[in-house]
Amino acid sequence: MFAYGSGVFKQRGHGDEKANMLDYILVVDNAVQWHTANLARNRGHYSFLKYGGPDFITEIQRKYGAGIYFNTLVPFENRLVKYGVIATEDLKDDMKNWTTLYVSGRLHKPVLLVTDNTNADTKTCLEMNLRAAVQTSLLLLRDTFTDEELFLTIASLSYAGDFRMTFGEDKNKIKNIVLPHIEEFHLLYRPILKDLRMIDPSANFRTFRVLPV
Length: 213
Description:
By secondary structure, this protein is α+β, with helices and mostly antiparallel strands. Helices cover 41% and strands 19% of the residues. The longest helix is centred in the middle third of the chain and has 21 residues, at 120-140.
């Protein structure tokens, strides 16, 4: 399970993050089994779809949208929580193939691991997802660029084509996400940047040069 968004990572222009909704994503091996248990314990978290039962909810989750089912506006310790449930198989597919770039795109940015039961296969998929984000961004950047330009480009990938970035969303959303957390982006991407032979980083990894083929 991991947490993400402005309720965990302070964004510019959002004030106190404790006033924002907490966003969680839970990765489960058996979605039907998980929803069965959660319906028994937290039935009030669900919309009218609860009347269809766990099999129906899982079918909606896995066959439509981005393979994730959300319960939202859940009160918890004087805050509101939104939590999504995704099957491990669907998460790995999205990270490997960018099937929807929904959860994989969120994992391009720093997240807070709440529980870590990640196995070796899933960790490999996580690394593939991050490496693909860097390599895709290199195609969009000049031959020389800064760490800020790189991380802004990476963070923008999952918003490409999102109509909310034209209507409704703050036009500075990506900068608001990245700039306060440059160091967290460095921690996430430095192992990959060290390993890429196609770029030449400065000693402090603040500027980069793409090497000729």
